TrEMBL record:
CDD domains: INTN1_C_like. InterPro entries: Arm-DNA-bind_5, DNA_brk_join_enz, Integrase-like_cat_sf, Integrase_catalytic, Integrase_recombinase_N, SAM-like_dom, Tyrosine_recombinase_XerCD. PROSITE patterns: TYR_RECOMBINASE (PS51898). It comes from Carboxylicivirga sediminis. Belongs to the 'phage' integrase family. This is Site-specific integrase. Residues 215-393 form the Tyr recombinase domain. The keyword DNA-binding applies. GO terms for molecular function: DNA binding. One of its GO terms (biological process) is DNA recombination. Keywords: DNA recombination, DNA-binding. It holds the Pfam family Phage_integrase. It comes from the Bacteria.
Length: 398
């Protein structure tokens, strides 16, 4: 299968200045396309035999350079499609050159990532953006290693493709079921977006069950939180990070949400108590969280802290990367055999602080800003201490 090309003058499209458009014609398997090059020339200025603008024609060098670029782009597109190892025709070349439709996985995935990047702070967090980029990186590696191609047509993605990707993640790269589930969740979302763009008829994930996505959610017991609270550290920077972490444990707010807290994020509720009112970045849902006394005391502690006054924040907060590095130190010093992170603090609020103390799951769901109670129920399944308490109560009744 070989492509042939030639330039031609479109005599039927003469312009008022007497010039004609130069088109490029490409033929593949007996079918052809004709595309405008954007170059115009008089009849006498066209060298039909040499397939170029006559050297005597004004700006001939510049115009011929444009024709060469068009030819090179078309030829390059042909070889790119050929390298994918899939069947394609002359229309596929035209679609790629004209940019519509973008019916290839990597291209659509990149479109989704670009859209998320523009919406950071408006329903999406920077963390979500980074996760999608990581998933795309994995997909590209998979395509190169297993399918020996750079991209794949959306209509070629089926159960076998997804199952092979799952095996590649778990067997070759030793990815946990939970992490693999995250990759699948994001790929499934991108394919749903492709359906919305009319680039795909149905989602191949309809027949594939994403296993192990819920995974293990680390959280601290109340005793571990208290141990961190009471520990006095030698360095101010560690004490600040500890306070921000403990604040997250008593509010359920994420790193980004705490970083965005301002004095006007606090308001008096109908009960006369102070509440935090903020928008959950991930779901774009408004959260109203009663301010527990321990969280309130941390806000009071840093009320006049210079950087807070300067930036109009409630709490001094480092970059997430630095926070996690310092939290590792805190875990070591406090002899807690868990990987501390701001996610762990949020999980702790959902489990040890609220659910384990009898706060109804519907209330917890509202405070966490979950769109679905099903998301919150994950926490309800992992509280061993609550199960033990409930069983003890039951034993007294039997």
């Amino acid at each position: 299968m070989r492509i042939t090309t030639n330039f031609l003058l479109k005599k039927a499209k003469q312009r008022s200045d007497g010039t004609y458009p130069v088109y490029i014609r490409a033929t593949l398997d007996g079918k052809r396309i004709e595309l405008s090059t954007g170059v115009f020339v008089s009849f006498d200025g066209w060298d039909k035999t040499g397939q170029k603008i006559s050297n005597r024609y004004p700006n001939s060098k510049l115009l011929n350079n444009r024709l060469t670029k068009v030819l090179n782009k078309l030829t390059e597109t042909y070889y790119q499609l050929d390298a994918l190892g899939e069947e394609f025709d002359i229309r596929s070349i035209k679609e790629r050159l004209c940019g519509t439709p973008k019916n290839y996985l990597v291209k659509v995935f990149q479109l989704v990532i670009d859209s998320i990047e523009k919406k950071i702070g408006y329903g999406y967090s920077y963390g979500t953006y980074k996760h999608y980029k990581t998933t795309l990186k994995r997909l590209k590696l998979y395509l190169n290693e297993v399918n020996i191609r750079q991209d794949i047509a959306l209509n070629k993605i089926d159960y076998n493709f997804i199952n092979s990707f799952d095996t590649w993640l778990k067997v070759k790269h030793k990815v946990s079921g939970h992490t693999a589930g995250k990759y699948h969740k994001q790929l499934k979302k991108v394919l749903n977006d492709a359906i919305a763009m009319n680039l795909l008829d149905k989602n191949p994930y309809i027949n594939f069950k994403i296993k192990g996505f819920q995974g293990k959610r680390d959280y601290l017991t109340l005793e571990e939180v208290t141990r961190i609270e009471r520990k006095k550290f030698a360095f101010t920077r560690i004490n600040i990070v500890r306070d921000v972490f403990v604040f997250a444990c008593y509010t359920g707010l994420s790193y980004s949400e705490i970083a965005n807290l301002k004095p006007n994020s606090l308001s008096k509720g109908d009960d006369g108590e102070e509440w935090i009112v903020t928008d959950r970045l991930k779901t774009n849902t408004r959260c109203r969280i009663p301010l527990l006394s321990k969280a309130k005391s941390i806000i009071e502690k840093y009320k006049d802290y210079p950087i807070n006054v300067e930036k109009g924040r409630l709490l001094p907060i480092n970059s997430n990367q630095k926070m996690n590095a310092y939290l590792k130190e805190i875990a070591d010093i406090c002899q807690i055999d868990k990987k501390l992170s701001m996610h762990v603090a949020r999980h702790t609020f959902a489990t040890s602080i609220t659910l384990a103390n009898g706060v109804p799951i519907e209330t917890v769901s509202k405070m966490l800003g979950h769109n679905s109670l099903k998301t919150t129920q994950i926490y309800g399944k992992i509280i061993d201490s609550k199960i033990t308490k409930d069983m003890k109560k039951l034993k007294t009744l039997l």
